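User: I'm new to structure prediction. If I give you an amino acid sequence, what do you actually give back? Let's try with this one:
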Amino acid sequence: MAGKRVETPVTLTSDVAKILKSYKEIAISGESDFITACNISLLVLKHRQNKNQKQRIIMFVASPIKHSTDEMVLLGKKLKKNNVAIDIISFGNTDINHEALNQLYSNANNSNNSSLLEV
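Assistant: Good question. You get back a string of structure tokens that encode the predicted 3D arrangement of the chain. For your 119 residues, that looks like this:
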């Protein structure tokens, strides 16, 4: 989710070896773009093979979020409208990110299907 652009190293698959191999390709660089990464995750979930499975995004946040709370509210409403659950794990910058992530969580949560954890 950081670097020059947001990338998806591997598409949805049940092949564990393919997933583990893609971990080696992930490099930490650049600045994170939370909303773009979440929107790309929505696109990946939209084109999944098994449409019977529930949609869920797990976001690990370890850097400051540059987006306003209004943008996070809109993203949360978009997730709720598309019936996508989001699990957010925030590391390190919990004081800086608390308000934005809390707004996203409260707007995306649909009958307790999402969660927010600050470490």
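You can read the tokens as a compact description of the fold. Here is one thing that stands out. The first helix runs from residue 16 to 23.
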